[in-house]
Amino acid sequence: MIPIMKSKSPWKTGVSLVCVILTGIFLNILGTKLNALFGWPLYIDNIGTILSAMLGGYIPCITVGFFTNIINGFSDSYTMYYCIISVLIAVAAVSFAEKMRRVKIPYILLAVLIFAVLGGVAGGLLTWLINGLSFGEGFAVDMAAAINNAVPMGYFPSNLLSSFLIDLADKAIVTVIALVIYKLLPSRLLDFVHTRSWYYVTVFEKTDRHNRKRLSLRMKVTLVVAASTTLIATAAIGVCILQYHNSTIAEYEENGRYAARVIAEKLNADRIDEYLTKGRAAEGYEDVEELLSTVINITPEIKYAYVYRVSGDGVHVVFDADTPELEGDETGEVIQYDLSVQKYLDKFLAGQPVPSDITNDKYGWLLTVYHPVADSAGRVQCYIGVDMEMNRLRSEEFTFLAKIISLFLGFLIVIRTYAVWMAERSIVRPINAIAHVSRHSRYDTPEARERWKNMLDALNIRTGDEIETLYEDYREAVRKTLRYIEETQRKSNQLTKLQNGLILVLADMVESRDRCTGDHVFKTAAYAEIILRQMQKEGIYSGELSEEYITEVVNSAPLHDVGKITVSDVILNKPGRLTDEEFHIMQSHTTEGGKMIDKAIALVDEDSGYLTEAKNLALYHHEKWNGKGYPTGLAGEDIPLSARVMAVADVFDALVSRRSYKEPFTIEKALDIIRQDAGSHFDPLVAQAFLDAEEEVRRVAALNMEPQTTDLQSPSREVIL
User: Fold this and answer.
1) Residues 169 and 297 in one domain
2) Less Cβ around it within 10 Å: N or C end of the chain?
């Protein structure tokens, strides 16, 4: 039977969970500090994660992995972005926790390998993304260079391999340390932790092969939490990326405008015409040209810097600094409008401020800032153009995206795990527990009803919400139902006793008209029960002999001769042999009994097994196995089983009882007659069951026994009436 959930002390559960988490975080941070202190080229930051996996499962393990990186992130912000790696290692650790607890070496080696793949390969890839498609510096990079020199494989593969090998050593060390600590912990502490409600929470629910087409409540809650948190996270990441993009664009634009203002301070707008005609020969020209080159060289984002006059016939080049990639246009040269100038040509020609513009053409992905330069009379003579290279922005955005997604994914798994736990604890398990009690409840006996009530009380659900209300309402409904069942059963028992009493009174009234039958109705019922129980014991007709069937036959047995009420007392108590006409009248008690019970069935107006068997007994108990009985001449198993049983009981009691026409037979003689007539008068299986229960038969026969004759005469035909 499935164990019933019992409520555990919430504060003990909470304290134990917090202790496991704090211990795990402490061990992780301690390992990190020791690693830094001794200058090892490792990490030693997963001891607590693996230990908490073996101690407490997903809840503390994932929490330890996530918050270790968050706490370490206060001293090294980059550590924070590896939350997802730590969380994935935590999930893997719990998957192998049971095998590690039992020190299954092959599984431990496999676990270490998976930890290294997650920490070294996935972690190395994340490092490459965070560093702007670079693995940075350090021991791992130096080791990668050595690997690449020995076996040329390229920058990227060699660094991933280096990261994997270092992490493989690291994870082997921390796994062994965690195992040693676990084995040193006292068994009582382990048993206490392993019985907490959060210990059984899993990240992924196992599929029930019997209910694959159904979504469990736990799965539905998980899907809702996962969908909602994913949508929120996606929206948050999208907003962050957009905000980062816009703020970076604004920063680039401000840097470009600042550079343009610096150039404008050096540029004398009143001499633009002179610059165009004389070029480098003009006074101050070389100073401005040098300033443009300086701005390009000292500012990484600035790719081009130039001064243009935009006229109706094209763009007149005033200054255009050379770059290593591209030689600038000559002063005075007239060039065609490019896309950005064409877009804002009206503003250029009118001397108005021009918005910054982003283009992506043969010159690259550029953000262009235009700054108008006016002469002493206030007329715009030219525009300073500064082109900011956007490729670095793309790399920075990619790095930012990798960081934020890594952080959010780790956070999402933590939220999902705790949400599943809370749903499991407060919704799923209480409802499943109530359903379990309901499925396994029985109320057919007082003991079963008491157990049902105790099982429900033992749940002691205290969620403080609608689930608790449902539980309390269900308990109250069960209490009322049990009281109603007990009252109904009490009244039913009274009615059954009254019914059986009335039947016995009626049967006794019928039989009392026959001065010779005495307690015939009681003894025939007792013999019938002996036969039925013996057949049940021997497996005879097992398909029919249910407890309900036996009860119905035994209770209705006293009515088998109810039809005798229609037979005259003269015939019923005649001391001698009956005439043929009298015998025919005596035989009618079977059909008359059947008619009387048919009327009772019609009055009840429902299918009653009890009355059906009463009819079978009254109508067919004088039928014979060989088909020579009356009233219908049924044979074999066409005769109802109850009537075949009563045939044996009725004849035996008639044989051993005094009748107006005979003295009682000895029990031995009566048993011999039953044995001889098996297969002709009686169903042989029924007769044999009766003979097999001889001890019980003798006990009943001895009650109020008439003095027996030793006459071994054959019974007359009236005996079987």
Assistant:
1) no
2) N
